[in-house]
Every structure is written in structure tokens, then in C-alpha cells.
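Entry 14. Structure prediction run on the chain below.
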Amino acid sequence: LTGAQAYIRQADFGGTFRQWRGGMYQHILIPTDGSEIAEHAVTNGLSLAKSLGAKVSVIIVEEPFDWLSVSETKAQQALGELAKHAQQVKTHAASVLIGVAHAAQQAGLSCDTIQVDNEQPYKAIIATAADRGCDLIVMASHGRSGLSAVVLGSVTNKVLTHTKTPVLVCH
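Output returned:
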């Protein structure tokens, strides 16, 4: 915040800027998928949490395999590969969460990690924020626009649209 913004906020709050800043957010949820852009949000979220003295929860949401998209004849062949793939996804998710937890620990932050299976990741993120009492969600946006955003959808956009919790989007 600039000096003027801090002054206005201080007047609205009735205390010092440090008191206002310290009580601003107390529990931050950081969704990640392990991508480079998500790591940018993780870094920013951890830095913000450290500056505010906030607790951190990090979530990775795995979308279950859609069996309806596989023909019956190919389902038999896919079964073995699916089990192998599912294990790789779980291992990747665990590795990402361990890395974030380590970074949080290095920053001196308390950090819970959450691994969830859900067909609609945005719903899992919103539910987790509510269930854990998070007062801010810090997440990345892949910056899709136009037709690709409409076709692919955006977890970030859906979270922004459906949550009551404030969201900080990192690009």
C-alpha cells in the first residue's frame, strides 16, 4: 500500500497500520497443481502469509478418471494403465505438497497440506476454504482468454465466481 492508502486504511481501522495489517488475513488457502504458474502463486502466498503472520493450508485437487469417456472395449485395456496412472498422480500430488510444506517450514510458517479427489476442483477449493476457516485464497491463473477460456474453463474463474472468500489471483 502507498502511504495515502495506508493512511486511509489506518483511519478506517482506528488503529496503527501494523495492527490493521496483522489482523487482515489469518488463514490463507493456496491451491496448486504443481505447475510453474501455480508455484508462482505458492511463493506469493507464502510471502504474504509470512508478512501477515497467517497460517497456511495448501490444497491439490486431483480429478478422478472419467470412465464415461472410454468405450467398453477399450475399458479392459485401460484398466491396467489407469491403475499405474492413478499411482503416478498420487505420487506427484504428494511430492508437490511435500515441497510446499518444506518451503513453508523454511519460511517459519505453519502449513497444512490437503490432497483431494473431486471432479470439480473449484468446488473442492471453495469447500476446503469454508471448512478450514480460511479468510483468503491465493491462487494462480493460467491467463487463458477467448475461446480457450470458454472451452477449457478456468478453475480460478469458477472459484472467483462462486466463493464468498476473498481471492488473490497471481499471474
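Confidence is low (pLDDT under 50) at residues 1-20.
Filed with the rest of this week's runs.
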